[in-house]
Structure formats: C-alpha cells, structure tokens
Amino acid sequence: MPGPLSALDWAIVLSYIAFSIGVGVLFTRRASESVDEYFLSGRTLSWWMAGTSMVATSFAADTPLLVTGWVRDDGIWKNWVWWCLLINGMLQVFLFSRWWRRAGVMTKAELVELRYGGVSPNAPGAKSAGLLRATLAIVHSSLTNTMTICWVMLAAGKISEVLFEVPRGIGLSVACAIALTYSLLSGFWGVVVTDLLQFVMAMGGAIALATISWVAVGGSSAVLEAVSRGDIPVERIAFVPSGGADGFWTTSMAALFVYLGVSWWAIEMVDGATTAVQRIEACKNEREGLLSMLWFNLAHYALRPWCWILVALASLLVLPNLEVRSPTTGGARVVQAVGADAVVLAGESGADPLRVSLAPPGSAPDWKPIPLVEPGDSVQPGDPLARTDSELAYMVMMVRYLPVGLLGLVAASLLAAFMSTIDTHVNLAASYFVNDLYRRFLHEGATEGHYVAVARIASFVVLLVGAFFASKADSVRDLYVFFLAFLAGAGPVYVMRWLWWRVRASTELTAMLTSAVVSTAVTHGFGGIHWSLGPLSEDGALTSPGRVVVVALVSIVAAGLSMLLTPTPDPAELTRFYAKTRPFGWWRPVAKLCGVEGLGPREEILPA
C-alpha cells in the first residue's frame, strides 16, 4: 500500500468505505419511494440525527487545514471570520428554525413562492416570485454548491498527496466515486447515516491528534516560551489582534470589527444555510428542528475547533514557516526550470544559470517550501520563489505524531469528512434542480420515480461541474473569502422578509444580483482601482473584509431603492405565508386579515 499508512490503518479506511457503500445499498429502496424520501428522509429525522449531520457536513476535509492555515499565518483571532456566525446561529435556533419547519418547504428557493407568490397562480406577485425561485434554483444547483465541492476537492487533493501519496487526480476520482455511489443509491438517507459515524470518527481523531501533538511539543509552556523568545509572533496566540505602533486601526483590528459588526448579518446564510434548512425540513416537527440547530451550534462552535487550534499552535514549534527568495542583487531573472529540490534562474550577461535550493534551514523531507513560480516567469530581486503551505501542516503533524491505528482512524475521518461534504452538496444541488427548476417549470406532473431518476442524473452532473471548478482553482482560503463576499448584502433582505410584509420578490432579487455582481467585480474586475478605505485597503487594494463592507453597502442601497420604486404588495396576498409560518414583526395588515392582532396559537391563525 502506498503512503505512510500501515496495514491496520488501511483496514480502518477500507472498513469505512465498505460501511458507506453498505448504507447506500440498504437505503436504496426507501430513498426511491419519493422525492421527499430522497431529499428529506421522509421528514422523519430526530433532532440528534439532523443536528449531528449538520456538524459532520460542516466539518469538511478542508476545515482543519483551513483553520491551521489561519492560526499559523494570522493567529487564533482569524477564526472570528466564522466564529461571528454564532450570532446568527442563535437567531436560527430560536427564530428561523421554527419558521422554516412551519413553512414545510423542501429548499430555500421554494420558500420564495410561498412568501411572495400570493394565494393563487394568478396573483400579482406570482410571476416575480416564480422568476426569483428559478434564479435561486440555478444559483444553488450550478454555483454555490458546486463552489463548495470545488474547495473541498482542493483540500482533499492535498490530503491525497501527503497522507496517501496518491496523485491528486486519482485520489479525488476514487473518493468522489465512492461518495457518489452511496449518495445516488440512498439519497439523503445515506448522507445522514454516514454522517453519524463520520462525526464520531472525526471528533475522536481530532481529540487524539491534539492531545498527542500538544504533549509531544511541550504544551502551553513551550508555546509561551517560544513567544517570549520571539520565535512565534504574539499575535498568533491572541484571540483579539492588537493595535499597531501607528494606531489602533490596524488591518487585523479592522477585519475583526467587520466580522463582528457586518459579516454575521450580511451573509446569505443569516436565516439558515442551505444545508441547515434541508435538515430542519427533514425533522419530524418544529421542536426537533429547533433542537437540531441548538446541538449543531454547541458542537460546531464550542466543542470542535479547539482541537484544530491546538494542533496548529503545536505545529509552529516544529514546522517553521519557510520562504525562499530570488537573489537580492542584480536585475530581473527568468525562471529556467522548477524542480522538487531547486529553482534554476537564468544567469546575468551570459553567466551560468543560478540554482536556488528549496531546502533552507528548518526544512525536512515532509516539510519544505513549495514553488510559487513556473518556467518562463520573470522574477525581480527578492521576489518569493517558494514557501511552505501552512494548510499542509495539519497533515504533516498527523503523519509525524499519530501511532498506527490512530493514524488510520484520522485518515478515515478525513476521507469521511470529504465524502460527507461531497454527498451533502451533490444531494442539495440536485434538490434545487429537481424541486425548484425541473419539476416546477420544465416537467410537471411526472411520477415520483421519474423525479428521483432525474435527481440521480443531476447529482452526477453537479459533481462534474465541481471537479471542473477545482481544476481551475488553487487556494482553499481564496475561495472561502470570495464566497463570504459573494452574496454579502443579501442577508438583511433575507431577515426582513420574515419580519416585514413590505419586502417584495424584486427586493430580494435586486439584493442578490447586486451582491453577486459587485463581489465579482471588486474581486476580479476592479484590480486597477486604488481604494482608500484605511485599514480595509492595503496598498490601494481591498482586503477581504473590505470587500464584504463594499458589497454589503451597495447591495443594501440597491435593495432599498428597489422597495421605493416598486408598488406596495397587497396584504391579502401574504395571508397564506403568514398563516403557515406565524412570524413576528411588522405584519399588522396581514395579521388583521387572518383574524389576529399579533402572534397567537396556530389554530387561531390558520384558515379553516
């Protein structure tokens, strides 16, 4: 067997693969009964199953690598980029989870026709609601879920190369084939059941690696001593970045304030991520949905990340960040060759080529700088030629410190995490295509078996699209920060559609499209613009928090203008949505038509 895994380690990995395929075969008949069974497990899940599945899905193969890279390159504080989402997580527990389950929809796209479509197909808002539903179906079936598949594939490629010593393409193909097999057979049932074992494996493996590596490097005393010597910057262990010598508003401090003050409410998932909504809707009832979100937030924020952070801090003691630069003397040079051990630069004025070693002091066979240049590139004096990849440090720590058996468990948990995320987003993207596009607009009235068959075909296509994106990208972190800004600004509208009857489908569509266009433009299209946003722009270029702020502000303004320029909706057309979900807020005209002045028991609101 290739790689550092022993026969026992491989046995553990292969046992998990056999379990996954067995689950697929076991639930095939049940998943094939209907679209609800295939995408929502027949709406029969208990809170602990749905909540654990959320946790397992959010722990993708890229997650420990991503967190390790943040801690090593920026510090513990960098995790506020996702810790801030605990705020909207609590809103989802006590507000949105109730409303989603009462709505009884399959996807977030289906909700918009309930919310804006009126009480009949000929209602004034039906056309715009249908357009919005179709737009969301296209976005979530072909873009957002496939982008998630893409960045998970990038991380899994690194795992395949380091842990299994299998070429990236082969490793990804095998893992995707396994995940797709049981996902196609068993639908959401396969996703949930395999997630339960994956959670146990992942938590056990992460705790084992954190404990063993932390003790091996000397624990907190060794880390604090390295900080006092200056070997580790003090900001790496800080939960809040410090102000700089030139003032309080450093780039790091500005980023923290954006995370805590903007990101959590601007993000598209403020009222529930697509993966969370799917699991809430799969629960037996409203109470189970609420408890599933509560368990998810507890495990996701309070239990799981600290193992990865400890490993990242331990890695700083034994895996230094290394960089190789071109000579600082002379002029520009052309890269002639790039090898595993050296970069060859053209000599000056006919001189012999210059060989620059990629094994500086502190490097090791499993930890050395990775080339950043290719043959033909021109480099200036002092330009970086290669540097270590901080995200790979987690993998190196695994191989160095875990004993036989435990290494196999963690390897299997990472493989399981990869397959869990892949199968979830493949199934989710297919649900948007089938439920909100194909069945709703392209082919109504077919049998349940027909729609399940289409879902299986769509799942295969979605995986191919995600693989194509992965072939064009090279950084997990770059994709993540772009994704945070992609629909930033739609969040406020997503909140207000539950709280205020005046919000229209056109308001939501405007915010979403503006957010997508502006985020893409400021990331890729406006590279030549010099931005002057203080610490939110470095050397005239927007930082990722700066992009979130710009996108959010422009999208909010556009959504506000849309509301001003469009007619007020008819309260009578909103009674169906209000009666089903019973939200609170500014709904008095609609509530009066339902026979109540405010919130009340369901029986008082639902029409006879």
Can you tell me about this structure?
By secondary structure, the protein is mainly alpha-helical. Helix content is 64%, strand content 5%. The chain contains 25 helices and 9 strands. It has helices spanning 7-26, 28-31, 35-40, 47-58, 63-73, 80-83, 86-103, 108-116, 126-164, 168-217, 219-229, 251-266, 274-282, 286-303, 305-318, 393-401, 406-442, 448-472, 476-486, 491-499, 505-525, 544-565, 575-581, 588-593, 602-605; strands at residues 323-325, 333-338, 342-345, 354-357, 370-371, 378-379, 384-387, 537-538, 541-542. The protein starts with 6 loop residues before the first helix and ends with a helix.
Layout of helices and strands, plus pairs?
Blueprint: H1 7-26, H2 28-31, H3 35-40, H4 47-58, H5 63-73, H6 80-83, H7 86-103, H8 108-116, H9 126-164, H10 168-217, H11 219-229, H12 251-266, H13 274-282, H14 286-303, H15 305-318, E1 323-325, E2 333-338, E3 342-345, E4 354-357, E5 370-371, E6 378-379, E7 384-387, H16 393-401, H17 406-442, H18 448-472, H19 476-486, H20 491-499, H21 505-525, E8 537-538, E9 541-542, H22 544-565, H23 575-581, H24 588-593, H25 602-605
Antiparallel strand pairs: 1-7, 2-3, 2-6, 3-4, 5-7, 8-9
Helix content: 55-70%
Number of strands: 9
Measure the end-to-end span: 67 Å
Main sheet attributes: strand count, strand direction, barrel closure: 4 strands, antiparallel
Q: Which strand order spans the largest sheet, edge to edge or round the barrel?
A: 4-3-2-6
Secondary structure category = mainly alpha
* Average pLDDT taken over every residue: 86
Overall shape: it is globular
Extract low-pLDDT stretches.
598-608
Number of helices: 25
Spatial extent as radius of gyration: 26 Å
Which percent band covers the strand fraction?
Answer: under 5%
